[in-house]
């Protein structure tokens, strides 16, 4: 039997099918394996799949063999996750456009992937002032010493300072690259790259040997935002990739903080814009900032139901499968579908029945939890 992960990889090879469409296909059919075997007419029911894209799907799908493709890909890229894998980062999976393939190198910490260890993104300009560097170092150090993982993009400037400070403080850091995980960019950060591999993780949605490309870096910013519980923008001019990260963070429901600066400072213009749009101030008292960040709820591990069996009525296999996937913490609908391996329509029907029976509760944003 071909694993679901092979279909994530196979679909990602078809031109015109990006992360958003992949997510819609998975939601519509329940699994990408089912979508792979769907007819052209059935695929046409998915929003965003226009005539030209459907033609590409039909033509290219016939030439791809998911199992063979997956085996070959594993030989060339030894470490990667797909959304079908239990270790795929949970927070990233909640976003509308999770990478179909997430490559990694370094030391994996499962608590980070499960969303049980808080991760905070720190981004900013490649040409920071002394003020921006000083506060980046102070905040990264404080976060690392208090158990936060610092996420950034290994670019020059603020990114580099945040990674280095977190590791000097004995903490972990994650670098999200716009190249393959084996390609160091900028090259001057080769020593930093080696250090991160021993004190954290390097991740990318691009396969090995992928060189830097100007279109890759704005896209990787969504991964920084998706992995993080909150985004701190230290210094950023008005035209800055850091503001793109902040925009993604807002779309994903993450908290955004900005370092205030003087009105006439060029590196602070982007931060001032964010503050005017409702971003929170990075306050001088770091204990207060840590308290605010610590108040962001973490994902609890999914626990098996501890209710005695005699108190639970006998459920149908479909209802029991969905019930087993539930937790006291609210879970998004897409995650429940993935955990059960059932079609989205069947899961939706089961959730409604369980809600009527009083076993689960529906919360805003299509999230569900045990009652």
Q: Top keywords for this entry?
A:
45% helix, 371 residues, globular, 18 helices, 9-stranded mixed β-sheet, alpha/beta, 3-stranded antiparallel β-sheet, single chain
Write the layout of secondary structure elements.
Blueprint: H1 4-12, H2 19-29, H3 32-36, H4 40-43, H5 51-61, H6 66-76, E1 80-81, H7 90-93, E2 102-106, H8 110-113, E3 119-123, H9 130-145, E4 149-152, H10 158-168, E5 173-176, H11 190-199, E6 200-204, H12 216-227, E7 230-233, H13 241-251, E8 255-258, H14 269-276, E9 280-281, H15 286-294, H16 317-325, E10 331-332, H17 333-340, H18 344-356, E11 360-363, E12 367-370
Parallel strand pairs: 3-4, 3-7, 4-5, 5-6, 7-8, 8-9
Antiparallel strand pairs: 1-2, 2-6, 10-12, 11-12
Helix pairs in contact: 1-6, 9-10, 10-11, 12-13, 16-17, 16-18
Brief account:
With 371 residues, the chain is α/β, with parallel strands linked by helices. It has helices at 4-12, 19-29, 32-36, 40-43, 51-61, 66-76, 90-93, 110-113, 130-145, 158-168, 190-199, 216-227, 241-251, 269-276, 286-294, 317-325, 333-340, 344-356; strands at residues 80-81, 102-106, 119-123, 149-152, 173-176, 200-204, 230-233, 255-258, 280-281, 331-332, 360-363, 367-370.
